[in-house]
Amino acid sequence: MSKVDYSLESYERPKLKTPNGEKKLLLHSCCAPCAGEIMEALVASEIDTTIYFYNPNIHPFDEYELRKEENIRFAEKLRMPIIDADYDRDEWFSRTKGQENEPERGVRCTTCFDMRFQKTAKFASENNFDIISSTLGISRWKDMRQINDSGARSSEPHDLPYWDFNWRKQGGSSRMLDISKKENFYQQEYCGCVYSLRDTNNWRISKGRGKIKRGVKFYQEAKLKLSQLD
Question: Which helix (DSSP H) or strand (DSSP E) does residue 147 occupy?
């Protein structure tokens, strides 16, 4: 049996359908690199989608602005509407108080997902969307069950379905990287919050590496460096 080529150049995208034929999707987006593959799949499927960028966890503010602008740039390229939601950082810190030393994928991440999904679901309910979903699950660094549980839990009070489609399957994660390189997206090196930045820097120092230099690394530059080593 021959292996299917799921690469960006060869993959023929299928027509995706929402679980029960819902017409209007509000897609919570965490960043352009995670969103790129999903956004292209939704455009190819002609699903009426609006991007909802709400990520008060991202720290500091200039990092937040850079990630947001990358997502806006790609949304405009695809002619996909995007909502720039509030950056209520104080509320995020209030909710995660006492969870500063939780590990990645721990309780703090659940609190963070809940906050973002709750606002996404509320906006969707108030603005006539039929269903919500998120780009968070495409990253292999994330716990998909943790994300999907949060999405379903947050949308239920608004009587909205949460679309838990597995965007990783059939080469989705690989195409995510291919699109990031093609679009030269900003390559963030930590999840987003101040505690993730702290823990990532501590790990790097323990390995004899320097701290993260924010705002300077892009996917095409990384690709170029790899090609120079060949």
Answer: helix 144-155
